[in-house]
Amino acid sequence: MSQPIPTVGLQLRSLLKASGELELSLAKVDVPAPGPDEVVVRIEGAPINPSDLGLLLGPADISTAKVGGTAERPVLTASVPPQYLKAMTARLDDSLPVGNEGAGVVVAAGAEAQALLGQTVAILGGATYAQYRTVKAADCLRLPEGTTAAEGASCFVNPLTALGMVETMRREGHTALVHTAAASNLGQMLNKVCLADGVALVNIVRSSEQAAILREIGAAYIVDSTSPNFTEDLTAALVATGATLAFDAIGGGRLVGQILTAMEVAANRTAKSFSRYGSTVHKQAYIYGGLDTAPTTLNRGFGMSWGVGGWLLTPFLMKIGPEAAQKLRERVAAELKTTFASHYSYEVSLAEALNPEIIAAYNRRATGEKYLINPSKH
Asked: Model's pTM, two decimal places?
């Protein structure tokens, strides 16, 4: 039989009101008893990824944040600029749980999931900024012996995204990659995957400090978008690698168009004949992030064989099917302390995650500053 567990636990909720106010709170919620094929996980680590911030904070102006409630259960409110409310209609006045992934210890298990009782597991499926989470046993990844919850907390979103980018490259017939915001935790993982798999990767960064991070782990092609020689350096790297597929974390601004233009120039340098319509080499850019919320600007100087689209992990995993997705998960588990190791600058409790100064810090999304929420921390 499973050990007794609390029937309620705290859960971080994000509520965007039609009045134009964001409210973050710690709500007491029921902890559902596990069904036959389910487990209850005591969450001991849940990372704050860029993909979490859109739901957590929405378009709120954090500089207007105010804190009420109590020290144990604070309530934070902040204003939302009116021009952003229309795009948020679907979530207005609906209190939502937050946290895409996390890890912890299984404290209760249904009859068909007893083998997981007491095990440290990672989970993907939302609502992980909470003390307890009831999930299907099939949605748990048992962590290798000796792995802590903190070490396994980020083993889904970033690792599977890195592997998914390389798998997308292979399935779409490309042979090399371009990645922006490349010194991020995800970017470093992608470099390690590409180095291990023999895939050429062009890394676009925004500072010499970020370039140094990548050089230290063996990255071969690094270009700085703030350099006056950016266009020339990028084109040279594309000629050397033949990369025709880019994954962009920035989203807004001119960068996607600059990448496609440089790909076109690189393709024409090896073209055997001239075409007024540009090269016949297909150039593809996928936007998977929104570090810049400005409109994406395309100055179309890259011929007629190109594409720009969106890319998200969950639809990708559904597209490749459960068998292929499981192979990717197994690789993550096997390389959790090497290729896919995550490093955190700060660990905070649920209450601390609602501190305006801490929110301002993790909302900067600065390279080298990764936050971990530990809902079991008091």
From this structure: 0.85
